[in-house]
């Protein structure tokens, strides 16, 4: 009996410690931006202020960098969702020998050869294409990196959509494009939304690719800009970093909540018979 | 309104599986036609070939006067109801029913009007705003039918339309389907593996096996005079008794009973198979006049208003259906006589006439 109670107490203690460990940075992120003199300590603001937000506004690159992040994320998301939808539909419906092996190989290669390892060749490729310092170049490189996983995830989803839906539409005279527009895309919408949100989150947090491919500070996204928020003395400007980080995280959190409430991140076909 | 003519249809899948093997069939205008067979016999492939979802490897499909062999499914003027109904989960019942009109780019008012009209005809008026997921199995089936009715096609194709319903609902839906087909008088082809369903619904039945037609006929013909032992085995809720017989003196000797052959062209000493339906056998507790199979009762199975009595005759079990309360006790000796004209004779699996 006492043993049982002790085990319960111990497990709660462990869970509590874990919670504290993960909650501390978040609590800091919530309190430091409103603190006139923030430190690394997690504490309620010693002197409540909104001046830090004004300071972020005064930084010539801070708010535009958030817009840059939105542009990169939106562009990559559109490309990834469109290409992954077409590719996964084709891979799911057309029989080609060795299809599954091909898919696994692509996924394997894309996870083995990560961004860091491919950085030099990627840079050279983008340089030859004349796309250095252009958002299009960054979007293309990010799209290439995310597509294999996106196709893989989405193909599993499309596999669960019964073929009879498409065949039924075909017998009623629908053209292939109408089948796609009227039936496949609406039925696959939860899967497409999941891929879209996942892509945006990936791009939002990506540092290395835009850091290397973009020279002009006017084009840098938020993830790259954070690194420049130092005081004249060369130490991190905690007030600015905390405030900017808060602004930087809000869109992602909002989008997660929206997508979750709407689609619940189901990874199955949403068809109940 | 159109009949269907299939000539020399061959369908070979990659890997060499021959689902249809030179199949010929004529389906008359306005007929309710069943494609019946065990699973893997090619009946669904045949239906999908008529619909245009499977291009045939050889042969031709005519609907009405047109050769539609190379036409797209949408250009054939057919409507198909799938086994899983294939209702679009993201559209309301109204949008589902009027989807064929949306494909034809008709204006929305016309679409909703037609959906309402067809829904009223099929008793679905109250459900127009719902999504398919909020419907029962029977309602989903009716919506699928309504969607097929909405385009007023020349031919209906149903793939196992009743198999996803539970037993009680199935009977109701069966009656409904037959009445609907009578009212619309549209040529209808449906696929089923359930012989009772085919017998109950169809004007004519084609029994398929291994990609070829074994017999085409009215339910009465197919049930009463199966053309082959395969059809005899397949049709009927209690399988037909198929017993070995030897021709002797113009009569057929089956386990010591010499029955009049009833057919001509038999050779002396020839081995044949005699078919007797359990429903067409008379069971007597005492030896009757004339030839009869003698045996002892082994097991009886209650069928509700009747009972199936399995009688051990020689080394075979012979089934006979008797009215309720007339079941003999196990191990009692009984005699079985086929009703006049109900004994069939097969040579090499084919019926002798």
Please give a structural write-up.
The complex is a heterodimer of chains A (273) and B (353). Chain A has helices at residues 2-31, 51-58, 62-93, 99-112, 119-128, 135-159, 163-171, 176-187, 189-205, 208-213, 222-225, 238-263. Chain A starts with a helix and ends in a 10-residue tail after the last helix. In chain A, helix 3 packs parallel to helix 6 (135-159), helix 3 packs antiparallel against helix 9 and helix 7 (163-171) packs antiparallel against helix 8 (176-187). Helix content of chain A is 71%, strand content 0%. With 273 residues, chain A is mainly alpha-helical. Chain A is globular. Chain A has two domains: 2-49, no CATH class; 64-262, MetI-like fold (Orthogonal Bundle). Chain B is of the alpha+beta class and 353 residues long. Chain B is 24% helix and 35% strand. In chain B, a hairpin with a 2-residue loop joins strand 20 (344-347) and strand 21 (350-351). The longest helix of chain B has 18 residues, at 167-184. The mean pLDDT of chain B is 89. The A-B interface holds A 162, 164-165, 167-175, 178, 182-183, 186-187, 189, 270-273 and B 51-53, 72-75, 78-80, 82-84, 86, 88-90, 99-100, 102-104, 133, 147, 151.
Question: Which key phrases capture this entry?
Answer:
heterodimer, A: 273 residues, mainly alpha, MetI-like fold, 2 domains, 12 helices, B: 353 residues, alpha+beta, six-stranded antiparallel β-sheet, 9 helices, elongated
Strand percentage of chain A, roughly?
A: under 5%
**Cα radius of gyration of chain B in angstroms:** 24 Å
Spell the H/E element sequence of chain B.
EEEHEEEHHHHEHEHEEHHEEEEEEEEEEE
Structural class of the helices, strands and pairings of chain B? alpha+beta
Tell me how many strands of chain B there are.
21
